[in-house]
Amino acid sequence: MRDLPRQSELIDGALIFAAPQTRWHSHTVSLLTAELRRQAPEDLDAIHGMTVRLDERQAPATDVVVVTAEAMRRERPDHYFFPEDVRLVVEAVLPDSAIRDRDVKPRRYAAAGIKHFWRVEQDDGRTIVYVYQLDPATGSYVPTGIHHDRLKLTLPFGIDIDIDLTSTGTLRRPPGPA
């Protein structure tokens, strides 16, 4: 998949090409990548837009992924990670990717044994993060929290992120009626 356009992914053996990004999506992915990199312990790192090769028919492109520092240093392969490298996957939902980000990808990530998954959505201008953890008994994700404005967690490591993009100045609300 190295010679395909950026943000191409393989889902159930079919190539999927992503639609153009929105400003909200771009700002959200940038903020989460930067904060996860800054707050991650030394043995972990975060990167955006990388593929996780789950198996021969599944190589989804992630919005943000937290992986081992060892995986980041590995020379080959340099264009995807393996499930065992991954500690967290983050998907920011857009209208054209909603079914994949809410249903298809989480099921594939869980089946591959990735322990932590976040789904990020926008509702009436607010960013909401839905946090999931893998239940080892069922092999499925279970919700552990819904976060508005601030994301404060202890797993997969200590995290404290202001996700209100309007208060951080990343996105500004349009001025109200005068």
UniProtKB/TrEMBL annotation:
<dbReference type="InterPro" id="IPR008538">
    <property type="entry name" value="Uma2"/>
</dbReference>
<protein>
    <submittedName>
        <fullName>Uma2 family endonuclease</fullName>
    </submittedName>
</protein>
<dbReference type="GO" id="GO:0004519">
    <property type="term" value="F:endonuclease activity"/>
</dbReference>
<dbReference type="Pfam" id="PF05685">
    <property type="entry name" value="Uma2"/>
</dbReference>
<dbReference type="InterPro" id="IPR011335">
    <property type="entry name" value="Restrct_endonuc-II-like"/>
</dbReference>
<keyword id="KW-0255">Endonuclease</keyword>
<keyword id="KW-0378">Hydrolase</keyword>
<dbReference type="InterPro" id="IPR012296">
    <property type="entry name" value="Nuclease_put_TT1808"/>
</dbReference>
<feature type="domain" description="Putative restriction endonuclease">
    <location>
        <begin position="7"/>
        <end position="161"/>
    </location>
</feature>
<keyword id="KW-0540">Nuclease</keyword>
